[in-house]
């Protein structure tokens, strides 16, 4: 397990985030925010296709069978605009399962942290869930508690015989400029 975590962190550090990410606002970070910034509660979702209805909930269709590095990943946005990290889809060592590693490694990552127990919630489907309206993350079956408020691994089902869809929601605190 330690080898997997060490490899994951090394991979996360080596991954660059493109400077042209038009939808990402780097915002203040812990190192650049002055005394006028405050911590505020915020929701975050792993990027993907939109669920139906008036919400910004998203789900991600896994494109390949998790295997050797580099692992497939998708960005995580807090408050719809702040790129705080990534969700990495990795083998778990358990048949029929994968581990989704959520790591705050985005440009806004040091201005954010995951809060509370079971603060990362994952929904799983084998058919496109796009028709679901405003899914309640608290009812997602798979949950994890962050380690040092910065990363978490959640082991979830994986079926190699069909499509695999995941909705990943985080409860967070982010630095926000005070008004």
Structure description:
The chain is mainly β. The chain has one domain. 7% of the residues lie in helices and 40% in strands. It is built from one helix and eleven strands, in the order αβββββββββββ. The longest helix is centred in the first third of the chain and has 13 residues.
What descriptors fit this protein?
single chain, 179 residues, mainly beta, eleven-stranded antiparallel beta sheet, 1 helix, 7% helix
Quick overview:
By secondary structure, the chain is mostly beta strands. The protein has one domain (2-18, 25-177). The chain has one helix and eleven strands; from the N terminus they run αβββββββββββ.
Low-pLDDT segments, ≥5 res: 1-24
**How much is the average pLDDT?**
83
Helix content: under 10%
- What is the element string, with H for helices and E for strands? HEEEEEEEEEEE
* CA radius of gyration: 16 Å
Structural class: mainly beta
